[in-house]
Backbone:
């Protein structure tokens, strides 16, 4: 109970600190907006197009990998906690689970989803599929 | 009355200690970098330049709090607050000594991991709300890097949980009384340390801010106190991962002769100095190298570490 109270008070304290330090400066600091100051910073060049551009789809693949493996970790944490109660069953469960996961991992590796630079779309990892390191 | 006053004192002490440490760390880092790169570092303000951080803070308080007119105002303001708040909150469960934690949660480790993963939002939102291409690219890189390395960080700590049989950080420290986990869990330590560096976006994993490509990455448009928030939060993050490394692998407050808190402080400072040494010496990898290192090396290593640890604990039990 006191632990929860401590956490709650710490959360309130931390958030309050952030809010206060963000707002208290308003009393001292100047405020002089200007036309040139308001421009988007692109190293002095006139900006082209929107700032919120469409970005690379490969980030989506990374996010997918993250979801897959993070769910796995979420399942493994309670498992690690009870390991000592049923060591034998828990260990073989783990071996099975990780083995299952390795199949997916091998698939992702084979079809190049772990590579940032892929030779062509569709994930066909041919022999000519080379990452920049291998070319050297 | 005491039920409230006691935690209140601890909270004020912990918040004060963490913030002072983070401010001091900026000076420590610049001095150490100076030492290792054969130059001076800040040495003008106060004795040995000790008051440099104070001067910086005073200056930043008087700077205009500038908002880009095209930015998403609410999100732009909230973003630096998120990272600051969640990194501070992670310290709630870090045990500084026996019984010396704001909250001795039995799910302490999960709390820390949850909090540290929340800081992704700050970077993603800040970069998107800035309405600037550099910011967007930087924040995307940061998100890709942080969510990837979060996986390895979580996996590498599983071995420790397995050996200690608990999520409670104090229990984990106590379980290291005979042998620090840095020896049996050396693979875990390696994976955790690399992942922790990437999570804090420190050199060599500072691609999200890569100055020579992206100006300043996700905080290009930030200035004044909001920039300081990102900046200080990075140093609080460094303190946090150092403290976590000490708690998980280096025996926490355990040690002979000295006071436990002193041991904890010494070990944490040593890890921080090591992180600074890494910054002083290593170059930055390319983005594909960064992801390949994580997904093709750290992930199999962490999984293998988990399996082997499980097998050993199983063999010990029989």
Residues:
């Amino acid at each position: 109970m006191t632990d929860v109270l401590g956490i709650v008070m710490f959360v309130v304290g931390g958030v309050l600190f952030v809010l206060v330090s963000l707002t208290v400066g308003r009393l001292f600091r100047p405020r002089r907006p200007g036309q040139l100051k308001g421009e988007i910073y692109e190293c002095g060049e006139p900006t082209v197009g929107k700032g919120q551009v469409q970005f690379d789809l490969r980030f989506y693949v990374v996010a997918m990998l993250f979801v897959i493996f993070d769910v796995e970790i979420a399942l493994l944490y309670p498992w690690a906690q009870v390991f000592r109660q049923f060591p034998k069953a828990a260990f073989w469960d783990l071996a099975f689970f990780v083995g299952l996961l390795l199949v997916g991992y091998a698939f992702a590796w084979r079809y190049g989803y772990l590579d940032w630079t892929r030779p062509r779309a569709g994930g066909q990892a041919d022999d000519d599929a080379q990452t920049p390191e291998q070319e050297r | 009355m005491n039920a409230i006053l006691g935690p209140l004192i601890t909270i004020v002490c912990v918040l004060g200690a963490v913030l002072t440490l983070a401010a001091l760390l900026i000076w420590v880092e610049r001095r150490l970098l100076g030492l290792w790169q054969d130059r001076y570092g800040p040495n003008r303000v106060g004795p040995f330049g000790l008051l440099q951080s104070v001067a910086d803070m005073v200056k930043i308080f008087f700077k205009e709090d500038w908002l880009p007119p095209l930015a998403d105002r609410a999100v732009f303001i909230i973003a630096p607050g998120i990272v600051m708040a969640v990194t501070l909150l992670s310290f709630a469960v870090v045990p500084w000594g026996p019984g010396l934690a704001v909250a001795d949660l039995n799910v302490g480790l999960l709390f820390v991991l949850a909090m540290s993963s929340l800081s992704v939002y700050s970077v993603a939102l800040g970069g998107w709300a800035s309405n600037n291409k550099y910011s967007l690219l930087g924040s995307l890189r940061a998100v890709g890097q942080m969510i990837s390395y979060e996986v390895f960080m979580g996996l590498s700590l599983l071995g420790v949980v397995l050996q200690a049989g608990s999520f409670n950080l104090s229990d984990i420290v106590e379980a290291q009384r005979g042998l620090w986990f840095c020896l049996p869990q050396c693979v875990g330590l390696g994976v955790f340390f690399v992942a922790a560096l990437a999570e804090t976006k420190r050199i060599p994993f500072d691609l999200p801010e890569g100055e020579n490509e992206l100006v300043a990455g996700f905080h290009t448009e930030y200035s004044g106190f909001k920039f300081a928030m990102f900046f200080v939060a990075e140093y609080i993050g460094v303190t946090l991962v150092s403290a976590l490394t000490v708690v998980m692998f280096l025996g926490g407050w355990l040690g002979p002769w000295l006071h436990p808190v002193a041991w904890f402080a010494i070990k944490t400072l040593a890890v921080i100095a090591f992180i600074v040494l890494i910054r002083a010496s290593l170059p930055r990898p390319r983005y594909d190298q960064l992801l390949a290192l994580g997904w093709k090396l750290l992930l199999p290593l962490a999984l293998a570490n988990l399996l082997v640890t499980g097998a050993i604990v199983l063999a010990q039990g029989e």
Q: What stands out?
A: Residues 58-82 of chain A form the longest helix (25 residues). The helical segments of chain A are 2-23, 58-82, 87-110, 132-135.
